[in-house]
Amino acid sequence: MVEVPAVSPADLLLPAPAEDSAKVAARVAAAREIQSERFAKAGRPELRANAEAEGELLDEIAPLDPPARQLLERAAKHLHLTARSWHRVVRVARTVADLDGSEVVRKPQVAEALAFRRHAPRRG
After folding, report:
1. pLDDT tens digit string along 41-93?
2. Predicted model pTM
3. Separation CA 10–CA 104 (nearest Å)
4. Residue 122 to residues 78, 114, 118, 119, Cα–Cα distance (Å)
5. 23 near 42, Cβ under 8 Å?
6. How far is CA 114 from CA 48, 78, 90, 111, in A?
7. Rounded-to-integer distance, Cα 48 and Cα 107, Å
8. Where does 42-65 have alpha helices with state H?
9. C-alpha torsion angle, residues 90, 100, 108, 47 (rounded to 10)
10. Top CATH class, 21-115
11. Closest to 62 measured CA to CA, from 121, 114, 13, 109
């Protein structure tokens, strides 16, 4: 889940995004196909999404390049990530990498996954 703020009138005047809905849908379909093939190759054809991968399988399907691992380690210390949170970030980063067509999870994909983390609502 991602909290989405209201759109301001100024934002409504901005040009349309460069990638239209059909292109986004095609990238999502391609990412789902990549995931399906990856799980079948790993002997787990019953799995459908990265969100279902755990333990050794997650380590196998979501290799982090060294800069990505360093970023996640720093974030884990700074944000006091639990093991569960760490794995959740890796799963989301793997999905972002799939959408980008990347075999390896890279630093920008980990950064994006960290940005998607749910934060406590601000008060006042």
Report:
1. 999 999 999 999 999 999 999 999 999 999 999 999 999 999 999 999 999 99
2. 0.81
3. 38
4. 19, 18, 12, 8
5. no
6. 23, 12, 9, 5
7. 25
8. 55-61
9. 0
10. mainly alpha
11. 109
